[in-house]
Amino acid sequence: MDKTTICDKCKSKVPVNQVKYVPKDENTMMVVCNDCASGKTSKKPAPSTTKIKYFCGRCKYKFKHDPKSLRELQCPFCGKSDRIMDDNTDAASVLQEVSNPSFSDRIY
Question: 13-15 and 4-6: which strand pairing?
Fold first, then answer.
């Protein structure tokens, strides 16, 4: 099985033996595929991912997770997955919930 890497310019997956290292700035190098190094390809737009916002009830950390990912849904801060909740709250939904008459019944 051949090892692959990601081209820093076009973000495509290429075999390691088909890349070149070019200077990005004074201290860093950039991995570039042979096509990008020769100027044959233009930069492809990055694939759009729809990440969902989550909230960890254990450590109060907010994060995003791609549902198409193979990674298990767990908090990247504390590593637990038992108190993960959707974080779909915004100011409008909070105000709407508080202005609901049944909300005042839950406080007392």
Answer: antiparallel
